[in-house]
Design brief:
alpha/beta, Rossmann fold, binds ligand PMT
Length: 223
Amino acid sequence: FEYLALSGKTVFITAGPTREPLDPVRFISNHSSGKMGYALAQAAIDAGARVKLISGPVNLTAPERVECIQVETAEEMLTASLEGINSCDLFIGAAAVADYRPVAVAEHKIKKGNEEIMELRLVKNPDIIASVAALSQRPFTVGFAAETHDLLSYARSKLERKKLDLIIANDVSVPGIGFNSDDNRVTLVSASGEVPLPQTSKRLLARQLIEHIAQHFNQQMAA
Ligand code: PMT
């Protein structure tokens, strides 16, 4: 970075999947590897920020100088995200949070029965980024939208519904980008327009994203 665009700022980043337990040995989760969120944490450090990374279970080592809080469930991710939020200037939600969790967690391993079909009852999880954006004293809030179709219209509706400042639209139907790949390709969507960022490594894309996000953030600060 030519200058430290986030110097002195505190950035919270969520990354990875959440795991929602069914019983002591099983859970509901998704294919997020944490690569996108960890790359953003590195890029934010390089831009001069103090970074707290709130991470679901992944096989990655947190970048140096990042405070990394490990969580499993969406509820734990929410608690860790809200802790110290008053000191947070910029919040980026790159985690793939499970929208639902099992209504009850069985105390013992669920046994195979005779029935051919087993039904799971799920209850909605809290929306972490919407909770952050709803705070009266809120950080500049940036979400992702992982979509398999109608990418930009769904992204725009999430931007509005969750009251975000920016959203990063990520087509997760294309092989080689999105979940668990080393590369990604996204479109940065704001109230005023769209910036497509071509396919590259998550490491380089994260640097471009942090640069764009810092620009919007600093503009809002100056306004
Ligand atoms: O981790 P990788 O393997 O590198 O993959 C990167 C990625 C594809 C996971 C990432 O680029 C990405 O798109 N992350 C968002 C994944 C997602 O589940 O998006 P969503 O459209 O369901 O959610 C929209 C936004 O709300 C996201 O910022 C999400 O973090 C947030 N959210 C969603 C549900 C919930 N209960 N709480 C939330 O905060």
